[in-house]
Amino acid sequence: MPELPEVETYRRFIDETSLYQPIREVEVQDPKRQLQVDLDDFRKALLGNQFTGTHRIGKQLFLLTAQGPIVTMHFGMTGDVAYYRDAADTPRFARSVFHFENGFQFAFLDSRKFGRLGLTESVEAFRKQKKLGPDALTLTTEELTQGLAKKKSAIKPLLLDQRIAPGVGNWIADEVLFQAQLEPERPANTLQPVEVDRLATAIREVLETAVAAEAIYRDFPSHYLIHAREWDEAPTSTSGGTHLNCPRCQTLIQKKYVSGRATYFCPQCQV
After folding, report:
1. pLDDT digit string, tens, across residues 96-143
2. What is the largest CA-CA distance in the chain?
3. pTM for the structure as a whole
4. Eight-class DSSP state of 177
5. Is the torsion defined by CA of 146, 151, 155, 160 positive or negative?
6. Which parts of the chain register pLDDT below 50?
7. What amino acid positions are annotated as catalytic residues?
8. Contact at 8 Å (CB) between 170 and 160?
9. What is the pLDDT of residue 218?
10. How many degrees, rounded to 5, is the angle at CA 188 between CA 185 and CA 193?
C-alpha cells in the first residue's frame, strides 16, 4: 500500500513531468468505481485545462489546475503514476489517462482498483471535510501536543489516526516509536512534554529518511527497526517475535497486536 513516502515521491515525479501541459483528452476505464464525481463533470473540468502544481496531505494527493478545480488522488492499495509518450508504452494497469497536447500521457495506475479520483474546490475545504490533521512530514511539537491532548488511548493507534498525523501508516508508527524509545501501548496522556517533542521529531525524521530513500526500505539506515521486521517471511520465535535482533541492543524484536494492528518493538529499548 502506498504510504506517505511513496505518495510524496509520486508528487515530485508529477512536478517534474506533467505540469503546464494542456489536457486534450481524459480517459477513465471504470468511472463508477474510480471516480468520486460524475465523469462528464470530471472531463468538463479538465479538458483544455492544465496542471499547475501539486499538494499533499498525508497519503492524499492534490493536482492544482490553471482554471480552479483541483483533482484529488487517493492511491488505495496499489496506486501508482506513470508518464509516457507512445501508446505501446501504456502501463498494464493504467485506469485513468490524461492525454496532453504535446503527445505525452500521464496515467493513474491501480492493479486492484481501490484508488479514487475526484474534484474539490480547495485543499483546505477537502481537509476540513475529511477531518485531516496537519501533514505528518512537517508536524510540529505544538501540533502533536494539541492532537494528543487528554487522550488516554495507547499511543500506537493514535499515531494512525489521520485526524492527528495524516500519513503515518502501520510500519511508520512502529519505526517512529522505536526511534523515540516509547512503548506502543503507553497511554498518550502519560507522555511528558520532552517525550512528545521526541516523538514529533522522530515522526519528521523517519518520514524525511523514507522520502530521501524514495521509499526503498533496504536503503534505510542500519539502526532502523524496519530491517528487523518480519515482512511475512522471517520465522517467528516461540515468544511471538522474529529471530531478528534490535539494531541497538541486540535483544530479540518482539511482535504483538495493538488495537488489532501487528506491532514490532524492542522490549529492552521501548520500556
Report:
1. 999 999 999 999 999 999 999 999 999 999 999 999 999 999 999 999
2. 62
3. 0.91
4. H
5. negative
6. 232-242
7. 2-3, 59
8. yes
9. 86
10. 130
- CA 93/CA 106 separation, integer angstroms: 13
Strands (E), 43-161: 51-57, 60-65, 70-74, 79-84, 94-100, 105-110, 116-120
Which among 205, 243, 242 is positioned nearest to 223, based on CA atoms?
205
pLDDT for res 243 = 54
Q: What b-and-e string marks burial along 41-53, b requiring 16 or more CB atoms within 10 Å of the CB?
A: ebeebbeebbbee
Note the helical H segments in 21-152. Answer: 31-34, 39-46, 123-130, 141-148
Q: Are 70 and 36 in contact (CB under 8 A)?
A: no
d(CA 197, CA 83): 40
pLDDT on residue 114: 95
* Contact present, 195 and 223 (Cβ < 8 Å): no
SS3 17: helix
Among 189, 174, 123, smallest CA distance to 3 is for 174
Instruction: Return the closest-CA partner of residue 180 out of 248, 255, 261.
Output: 248
How far is the C-alpha of 104 from the C-alpha of 51, rounded, in Å?
Answer: 14
The backbone region for 33, taken as left when phi is positive above 0, alpha when psi lies in -120 to 50, beta otherwise, is alpha
| Beta-carbon contacts of residue 132 (< 8 Å; ≥ 6 apart) | 57, 58, 60, 126, 162, 163, 166
Please give the pLDDT value at position 225: 95
- 104: which strand partners? none
Task: List, in order of start, the domains of the chain with CATH numbers.
Answer: 4-130 (3.20.190.10), 136-265 (1.10.8.50)
Which residue from 141, 142, 134, 121 is spatially nearest to 198, judged by alpha carbons? 141
